[in-house]
Structure formats: structure tokens, C-alpha cells
Write a structure and sequence with these properties.
With 414 residues, the chain is of the alpha+beta class. 27% of the residues lie in helices and 26% in strands.
Amino acid sequence: MDRRKFLKASSASVASVSAGLSGLPLAAAQTTTSPEVVVVGAGTFGAWTAYHLNRLGAKVVLLDAFGPGNSRSSSGGETRQMQADRPSDVYTRSAKTAYGWWKQLEQESGEKIVLETGKLMLSTSDRGSEAVQELRSRHAEYGIGEAEVLGPDELRYRWPQIYSDDIRWAVYTRHAAGCVMMARHGIETVASQFESNGGKVRIAYCKPEFDSGDRVSRLALSDGSTLSAQHYVFACGPWLATLFPELLKKRLRVQRRDVLFFGSPPGDPSFAYPNLPTWGEIGSGYYGFPDIQHRGFKVAPYPDKNAIDPTADDRLIMPHQVRRGRAYLQQRFPKMAAMPISESRVCQVTDTVDTDFMADLHPGADNVSIVGGGSGHGFKHGPSVGEHVAKMVLGETVDAGFADAFKLLKGEFA
């Protein structure tokens, strides 16, 4: 393995070194028990980065203040969807690669993570035919699968539980372009598999400490101990700007998203998986999932411009979002309109200016990588982003398209 770039992360000023894992030199200030890499944040980007670093031969510790899959993280909650409808070859390729890794994780672990729900996008406008044809061509080019275009009659025949008299067309996709991942369970499984492969997971809050320059010298942990490594990957989602305020305060924006789960009508399975796909309506401000594991029919009104403190704020849904959710059910899923809310969740979305992810070296610290800015579509891409970051840290050849799209210094919020 070519690790020349990685070895640059160790301090050149230290003359004496001790032997690390696989003969990799470690700085004398460290011990043979010190990790080569510490990954901070066990969400989808961090957990998969640790998994791939470990797979490629690095010695890794994965830190999280609350634990993998915790309810305050952006990767918490029961479900997320896989899709490949962004008009970008980078994200289409990433979705296909990520889908393959999620499926491989199922095989490695014996756990069920991916549900083949399919995905349905609805439109009440005749416009959009050119975008649909471009989507179909892109899916065909990358072997993702056919995107079916459905008219109102076909839509009504397949899913009569959807009110579709005003729908002009719909697009139905599957597999890498339309499925559901069990989010919390998936992250717990990645972390567990990482540990089974020799990695170490620790629950600890940390703060980076800097040397006389901008390089991170060690992490100060909440239990009073410190942890040192050759390289540090910060994949802390909505906490990133808190750790690196001067660099990221104007480059990341954290906002809340209320998610509602409505109980299905008694004895009626038509709103539950596998009898209904995930769905969204173009331009409406709504998307959702069928009832999965009897948790309820998921409705997510968006956007919500309210900021959220991911550590301290209560996760209580807004009354106006409940009203919005019910109004939409009355319109599109009328049999669900009178059903009670069985569960709710408040998530947070960490946006970048252009909604591209961040996965790049810190501009002033060559032993620090920053990964984040999921922008509401990051969860599914965790495996491919994590693989990209692992290769970047270890000095291996990376995908040039990913490297360009995920640059750190691409813009700021006003």
C-alpha cells in the first residue's frame, strides 16, 4: 500500500520513532497502543470512514460523544432512503457504489438493512419531461436500472391508496435508485463490523488541541485522558462548526426537520411496506415512507428554516408541522387523514452552500481531514464517501470527480 502521503502526517521533527502496526512508524511521543487514525463522529460518514480505513490496513479508533446511531445524530432514526436522482454523475456513481457496500454489509453481518421498497416521485405539472429523460439515460448509463414513467391510470391501478386524479406523471425507480435503509440499525451494524474486524469504538467527547502551528497534536477527552494519532478525521455532522468555528461557521448551516409517523388504519396493510413505495411530490415540500416495522406512515414536511442545537435542544415537533402533515394527508392519502400520530422525530440537516458534501484536508492542518455537510442527502452515500476519505488519508488514488465536488473551500453562506 502506498502510504507516502499518510506518513507525512507524522511529525518530521521527531527523530526517534517506535514501531506501529504493520511496521508503520509512529511518533516517539506516542506509544505502540496509539492509533494511526482517530475518526471523530460515528454517523454514516464517520463510521464508514473508520470501516474502510480498517479494511485498508490502518489502525483506527472511532469516537462518538453519544455512540453510533444515537438519536441526536443526523444518522439516527429508523429509516433513510436511497435514491440517485440528483443531476450529477458524481452522485449517481456514488449512489451505485454505496448501494453495493450496504448490500455487502448485509452479507458480512447477517443483518437486514436494505428494504427494496422502490421509490415513487409524483408531479402535478406537465413540465419536467426533459429532466425525466435525462434521469433515465443516466441510470441506464450507470446500470442502475430502468426509471419507469407512469401515467395517471397506471399509477391508480398500482397504488389506489394514493389520490392521483391531479397527477400528470410519476417516475418509479428501484434498488440503488429507490430503496430504504434501516438507518440506526445500519450504523450500529457498520460500527459492530468495524469492531469485529479489529477496530475500536469509544464513547467520548473530545476537543482537538493544536501545536504551535495549526496541526492537531492530540485530542483531549471528556474523561480527562488524551488520545494521539498520526491523522484525525472529523466527521461530526452538525457539531463540526463548533469544533472549527473560524473555518466552518459560515460554511455550514444546521436546521431542523420534523418527521411525523401516522398510525395506519386498523386492519389495513395498504399503507405499509411492501404494499407502498417511498414517495415524494415534486415542488410540494413533502416526502415520506410506507409504514415499516409497524412504526407508522412517515411524513416529512420540509423545509424548516429554524436552527437547532444538536446537543442541548429538545426534540419536540412543531405544531404547525403537524398541521402541515395532516393537510397533506387529506390531499394525497385521504384514508390516512384522521389517523393519530404514533411517533415523531426531530432531525437536523447540515447544509453546505451548494449542497455538495465536504471531504477534504483542513487547509491549515495537514494531519486533519474534515467530512460533513450531508445537506439532507448524505446518509445513503456514507459507504462511498467513507471509502473516498480512507483512500485520501492513506495516500491512495482517489476518484477525481469526488475530490473536486467535495472540496472544502467552495463557498460561504451570506
